[in-house]
């Protein structure tokens, strides 16, 4: 059996994701799709609007066969770390291909761009340092530095988010000497940052979330054209149970309490709280009535919104700097299965013995500091739920076995 | 001018407190009553149902002339620490008397009991150790040890809470060699723990709170017979602004988040989290749907409910053990005025120069680690308020000058 890996967030699963899944399978001629998916917190430093279980469900129905959780520290990280950990998990499960969506859609351009950047590394690094010293944020300094190089021929447009992420996948695969082919599929429909849904059958997840949350009472019907019916159902089910989609607004009371109650010297020990940001955080939170006003007041040229959002999540989840650095250095220590189809289960049976990381079906199966961290992080996510269902949700998180989906019948077992 | 000190919580101010104030002034023939009052968190490890500002207001209207805040660490402490700090603040302001309510009402009995306990100290200590080792809580072991001694004549009933507290006041005055006379007034009306209000004109604060919170929508009219009209008004005003009285229920979502999000090794560094309680806390909170179910599951013979409630407050307020121990050893480092009448202000002018602690009218006037702590603690209390008024409340706490009351006109200035 041949497996193709994809690395995803599905916040929420939409028609573009469905297209990516089908094309990945077709283009790589694979029998099984392994989706490495962020858990309850996402790369740009936000909570997922619905939980990982709901999202894993839609992924299985959409055609993925194995859903693997990308652990929190790797999921809530800059592109290179995110990409490297995703590739590592796919490698552990012996995926033979990785297929990602990109604005470019031309895999040769990725190889070409990486090699050009390698060749001009000294120039690039100097330019990057100089832009960085001028106070530009990491991504801005990176893209300015790339722009200052001379390019032999057409290069990737590195201002586009999925090109950047794709380049990191290709780089991570090369660095890890994983025997995996890289494939890319051109993203169709709306661009990543487009915020309107019209007659598009394919809209970005950003625009779907915007539309969902644009009215006081989020309405699933407003985005039905852009998502499969099972996503609508998952969203409706979540709304029914939770009364709201989970956003930074749901978690803001807890973040505010954390920042107000914690002494500055303790905040400073948390991951990404650097360069005296602890004082700025404590002063800013006193005047902030919402997450948005807080972030707007906190933002400077030096830090991107995303970098600050990730820091806020690490504060909320009480991630200590040494713990984070040790775990990130080590890489993901296990493969956690959130769900599988019958195809995925068959594939898993064939590769389980070759996997070079322990494969877990529940968190209780392994003693590891990262598992204690994952459990804390899950519980924090549920802090945004109605008070009366939090204990139920925490219990489920510890005890839920992977979702099992029978593809031929289109049913969960 | 002669000042008499009293040490109070006023949660809320009721007819018994009014009687205590009048009798204290009369019995000690004082011109000025100095009330040392707990801030937003109280001796038994609970938030006050209304804020210190509302309570200070009722105290001024009830006849107190200077309202001094007992800082958090001393207020949320066992009786000996609470009493010692209260006496220290009164001493700093040159009070010549201290008058407390007690079940006994006989000041000689306090002196007699203390001297008997001193004489039999070795026996007492042995008995205490032995009961303690059997797993009895501190107050239970104390009272059993006292019961095992032989008493020359009638002794104080040390099972009664105001007798115990009174003994600690008398002891603290003796230990500090404060030139202050001790007076006591027999508590009249309902006993401390009585929980019903009937036709009593004097009911305990405990029964008043129970009655207030007995219906889903707290009703101030139900307790009007037991409190002065200005207390009813303060309670109604608070309800109107806050939508609820502040209780552990208001703060439980924050405590739950704190316990779930904080690693056990970090909880262990907090004050009063001892003997492996961090693991018990983390396990118990996973199943708790309310503060009451949490506490009931946490409680063992070894720890009193009060001891555990105080620990929960220290966790909620992130009080580190070394910080707490250093501050408690040092004693209160300043005298913070929450409110004063014209009489109080005149008195303050006459003693200000003799005061051996800095006298503060706002928190911003002094650099001290305890002030940083007080500010954090205040902000945590406001975490129980509706989200939209928290920033306003935090701002007020930093900038509000002391309340000023003109006694002759019965008006605030």
TrEMBL record, chains A, B:
Q: Where would you find the membrane-spanning parts of this chain?
A: none
- Function statement: Catalyzes the formation of N(4)-acetylcytidine (ac(4)C) at the wobble position of elongator tRNA(Met), using acetate and ATP as substrates. First activates an acetate ion to form acetyladenylate (Ac-AMP) and then transfers the acetyl group to tRNA to form ac(4)C34.
Matching entries from InterPro entries are given as: Rossmann-like_a/b/a_fold (IPR014729), tRNA(Met)_cyd_acetate_ligase (IPR008513)
Q: Does the keyword Cytoplasm apply?
A: yes
Superkingdom of this protein's organism? Bacteria
Q: Where in the cell is it found?
A: Cytoplasm
- The yes or no answer to whether the keyword Repeat is present is no
Looking up HAMAP family in the UniProt record yields: TmcAL
Keyword terms: ATP-binding, Cytoplasm, Ligase, Nucleotide-binding, RNA-binding, tRNA processing, tRNA-binding
Catalysed transformations (reactions): cytidine(34) in elongator tRNA(Met) + acetate + ATP = N(4)-acetylcytidine(34) in elongator tRNA(Met) + AMP + diphosphate
What family is it from?
A: Belongs to the TmcAL family.
UniProt: ATP binding residues: 7-20, 101, 162, 187-188
Major place of residence: cytoplasm
Under what name is this protein listed?
Answer: tRNA(Met) cytidine acetate ligase
EC number from the UniProt entry: 6.3.4.-
């Amino acid at each position: 059996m041949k497996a193709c890996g994809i690395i995803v967030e599905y916040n929420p699963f939409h028609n573009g994701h469905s297209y990516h899944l089908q094309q990945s399978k077709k283009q790589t001629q694979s029998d099984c799709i392994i989706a490495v998916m962020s858990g309850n917190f996402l790369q740009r430093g936000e909570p997922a609007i619905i939980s990982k279980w709901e999202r894993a469900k839609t992924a299985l129905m959409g055609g993925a066969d194995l859903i693997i959780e990308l652990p929190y520290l790797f999921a809530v990280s800059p592109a290179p770390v995110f990409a490297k950990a995703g590739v590592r998990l796919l490698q552990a499960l012996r995926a033979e291909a990785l297929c990602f969506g990109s604005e470019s859609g031309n895999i040769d351009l990725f190889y070409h761009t990486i090699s050009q950047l390698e060749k001009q590394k000294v120039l690039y690094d100097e330019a990057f340092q100089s832009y960085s010293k001028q106070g530009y944020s990491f991504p801005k300094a990176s893209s300015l530095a790339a722009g200052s190089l001379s390019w032999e021929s057409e290069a990737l447009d590195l201002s586009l988010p999925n090109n950047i992420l794709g380049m990191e996948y290709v780089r991570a695969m090369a660095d890890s000497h994983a025997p995996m082919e890289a494939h890319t599929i051109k993203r169709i429909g709306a661009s990543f940052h487009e915020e309107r849904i019209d007659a598009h059958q394919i809209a970005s997840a950003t625009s779907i979330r915007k539309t969902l949350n644009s009215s006081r009472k989020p309405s699933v019907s407003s985005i039905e054209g852009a998502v499969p019916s099972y996503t609508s159902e998952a969203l409706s089910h979540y709304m029914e149970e939770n009364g709201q989609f989970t956003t930074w607004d749901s978690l803001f009371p807890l973040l505010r309490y954390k920042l107000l109650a914690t002494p500055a010297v303790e905040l400073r020990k948390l991951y990404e709280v650097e360069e005296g940001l602890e004082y700025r955080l404590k002063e800013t939170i006193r005047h902030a009535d919402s997450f948005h006003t807080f972030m707007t007041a906190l933002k400077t040229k030096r830090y991107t919104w995303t970098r600050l959002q990730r820091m806020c999540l690490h504060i909320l989840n009480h991630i200590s700097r040494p713990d984070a650095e040790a775990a990130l250095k080590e890489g993901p220590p296990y493969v956690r299965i959130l769900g599988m189809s019958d195809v995925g289960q068959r594939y898993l049976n064939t590769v389980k013995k070759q996997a070079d990381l322990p494969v877990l079906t529940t968190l209780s199966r392994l003693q590891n500091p990262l598992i204690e961290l994952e459990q804390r992080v899950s519980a924090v996510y549920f802090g945004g739920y109605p008070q009366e269902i939090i204990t139920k949700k925490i219990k489920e998180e510890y005890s839920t076995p992977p979702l099992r989906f029978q593809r031929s019948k289109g049913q969960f077992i």
